[in-house]
Design goal:
The structure is a single chain. This protein has 133 residues and is mostly helical. The chain contains six helices and two strands, in the order E-H-E-H-H-H-H-H. The protein has a two-stranded antiparallel sheet. The longest helix is centred in the middle third of the chain and has 31 residues, at 52-82.
Length: 133
């Protein structure tokens, strides 16, 4: 995966460097991408045929969908939290010092973690005792 960096080149013009981001390579992510491309050549050809504007819009759509999923999940957690007034009161006390605009997000995050830890784990089969012959 490539990650953008905006920094000037060896004392070069800072304004020119700001308009041209530098990208950092991640070999593990690039390997996953290459594997996907090899497994899906028709989809890769479709992606390469996209105009830059269309590709950028597809990327933005992906981010919008990710944000929508997060909002929906947060709303569901807060709804479950409303059904458990004791937990809600405890979390409100825990986030009292968090800035007002961040409280709901932090409270939902803490509630998700608490609910995950309280949820009974799926039982795993215990390995067989002894050696069967």
């Amino acid at each position: 995966m490539l990650r953008g960096r905006n920094k000037p080149e060896n004392g070069g013009d800072a304004s020119a460097a700001e308009s041209q981001p530098q990208f950092k390579e991640n070999p593990q992510v690039n390997a996953k991408i290459d594997d996907y491309i090899r497994a899906n050549p028709k989809h890769w050809e479709y992606i390469k045929s996209m105009t830059p504007d269309r590709m950028a819009r597809a990327l933005v759509l992906n981010e919008v969908q990710k944000q929508d999923r997060q909002v929906k999940m947060t709303a569901g957690v807060l709804k479950k939290l409303d059904q458990n007034p004791e937990m809600k009161k405890a979390l409100q006390a825990a986030v009292k010092d968090v800035p007002q605009d961040q409280r709901e997000k932090v409270m939902a995050s803490m509630a998700m973690k608490a609910m995950r830890s309280m949820k009974p784990r799926e039982t795993q089969q215990a390995p067989a005792q002894g050696v069967a012959v």
